[in-house]
Design goal:
The chain is α+β, with helices and mostly antiparallel strands. It is 35% helix and 41% strand. A 3-stranded antiparallel beta sheet has the order 1-3-2. α2 runs antiparallel to α3. The protein starts with a strand and ends with a strand.
Length: 110
């Protein structure tokens, strides 16, 4: 049985978030939470909250929390927020602010 949690439109680049997604994939939840706690990457803060939500979803369904592991850790691209920055001589340059969809599933080891 797997339990899923999603954070849509997180304000972080998918490329940066995938570094942390690869770090915790396949690990037990206590090891994954420890790695997220001590990681210096900004994406770790987002993944920590999503992982805690997935654990809470598992507890809600009476799963054995001590046997949980991260079965899926994925980052999909969200929409890009487009802005304009004024530049010299009346010109304008585009600013692209990417978003991400963070998906974490936790499963029980048999």
């Amino acid at each position: 049985m797997t339990f899923k949690a999603i954070h849509k439109y997180a304000r972080i680049s998918p490329r940066k978030a995938r570094l942390i997604a690869d770090l915790i994939r396949g690990k037990k939840i206590d090891v994954a939470l420890a790695q997220l706690e001590f990681s210096k990457k900004r994406a770790a803060w987002y993944f920590k909250s999503v992982l805690n939500s997935a654990i809470a979803n598992a507890e809600e369904q009476d799963a054995d929390v001590s046997a949980l592991y991260v079965s899926e850790s994925r980052v999909d691209e969200g929409s890009v927020i487009k802005r304009w920055r004024p530049k010299d001589r009346g010109r304008a340059h585009p600013i692209h602010k990417p978003t991400s969809h963070l998906i974490i599933s936790v499963g029980e080891k048999k």
